[in-house]
């Protein structure tokens, strides 16, 4: 049996969040998500303390197509590490941390406006 990393090859709004996961494109996913121009990926992070340059490697690989990165930090707003904030600035990406619910809503609006947006969303219960 072949097990693949979760990946949806396209851009789609997030229809719902909570109970430890998300719904989008008539599918559901348990766990966190990384939504970038190349698609929506399962993201193996559960807490903002896990934010690192490696955790955002996919974002940096696609930085030419991303102007805004919304970072859903769970139920509460949590700051991102200074090193990570500086790396986003160097890449020309405006990284905006916020609670996951706010990040989902803002992502959907910017996506509907066809903006160069990405989202890193920690799952919430």
Automatic annotation (TrEMBL):
Gene3D superfamilies: MTH938-like. It holds the Pfam family DUF498. It comes from the Bacteria. SUPFAM superfamilies: MTH938-like. InterPro entries: MTH938-like_sf, NDUFAF3/AAMDC. This is Mth938-like domain-containing protein.
